[in-house]
Design brief:
Blueprint: E1 6-8, H1 9-16, H2 20-28, E2 35-37, E3 42-46, H3 47-63, H4 68-82
Antiparallel strand pairs: 1-3, 2-3
Helix pairs in contact: 1-2
Length: about 80
C-alpha cells in the first residue's frame, strides 16, 4: 500500500503533539495550509506542507523572531517602558 499523501487534522495534532483545536486554529490562521475535501468539508494537510510548516517554525526559532500574535504586546510593553 502506498504512503498516504494527505493527513487528517487528527494526524497533524498527533504529530505536533497538540490538540485537534490547536491544529484547526493553525489552519484557520493560514499558518498551516490545508484543503477541504468532500461534502462534509473534512480538512486534509499534505505531508510536505506539514514538513514545510515545521521547518519554518525551526527557522523562526533560530532567528529569534517573535510570533505575530505577540508582536503587538511587545510593542505596547516597549512603549510603556519609555514613558
Amino acid at each position: 500500500m502506498p504512503t498516504p499523501r494527505f493527513l487528517t487534522l487528527d494526524d497533524v495534532a498527533e504529530i505536533l503533539n497538540v490538540s485537534w483545536s490547536q491544529a484547526y486554529a493553525l489552519v484557520r490562521r493560514k499558518e498551516l495550509i490545508a484543503i477541504q475535501i468532500g461534502g462534509r468539508g473534512q480538512w486534509r494537510v499534505e505531508k510536505d506542507e506539514l514538513e514545510r510548516f515545521i521547518q519554518q517554525k525551526y527557522a523562526e526559532a533560530r532567528a529569534g523572531t517573535v510570533p505575530a500574535d505577540t508582536t503587538a504586546e511587545t510593542v505596547d510593553q516597549d512603549a510603556d517602558s519609555r514613558t
